[in-house]
Design goal:
By secondary structure, the protein is of the alpha+beta class. Helices cover 28% and strands 37% of the residues. Strands 3-4-6-5 form a four-stranded antiparallel sheet. Strand 3 and strand 4 form a beta hairpin. The longest helix has 21 residues, at 88-108.
């Protein structure tokens, strides 16, 4: 049984579970179920954003390769200029339309793993 508590305190999480479904002609069928979560946003003076450097390595690499760098913003926080920030709404669009789509396609093309996205709410029931 897996229970996630206080998910807001987790900056990013990838959960993998191997489920044995049954046997087919003597071969065990295993399905790998994965869920990848978005990082939490930070809000400063009404600006909801994420910093690229806090992303998990896989997300950071893919984001830098696929997003138009004109979307990056700099935020002046307590007299210090913080760069490589992205408005959270832009990150969410990228995450849903680029990152999750590429992750599903990559896993789908694998012959050894079947990927099924699991909503975070469903994890509480497992």
């Amino acid at each position: 049984m897996i229970r996630l508590k206080n998910a807001e305190s987790v900056s990013a999480l990838t959960l993998h579970m191997n489920l044995t479904i049954g046997y087919n002609n003597g071969f065990k069928t295993i399905i790998r179920v994965s869920t990848v979560m978005k990082v939490n946003s930070t809000i400063y003076k009404g600006i909801e954003y994420i910093q690229v450097n806090v992303l998990p390595d896989d997300q950071k690499t893919r984001l830098l390769q696929t997003i138009n760098h004109d979307f990056f913003i700099k935020i002046l926080i307590d007299g210090k200029l913080v760069g490589r920030c992205l408005q959270f709404k832009d990150y969410e669009i990228w995450f849903e339309n680029i990152y999750k789509a590429q992750t599903a396609t990559t896993t789908k093309n694998s012959r050894t793993i079947i990927n099924a996205a699991v909503p975070s709410e469903a994890l509480k029931k497992i």
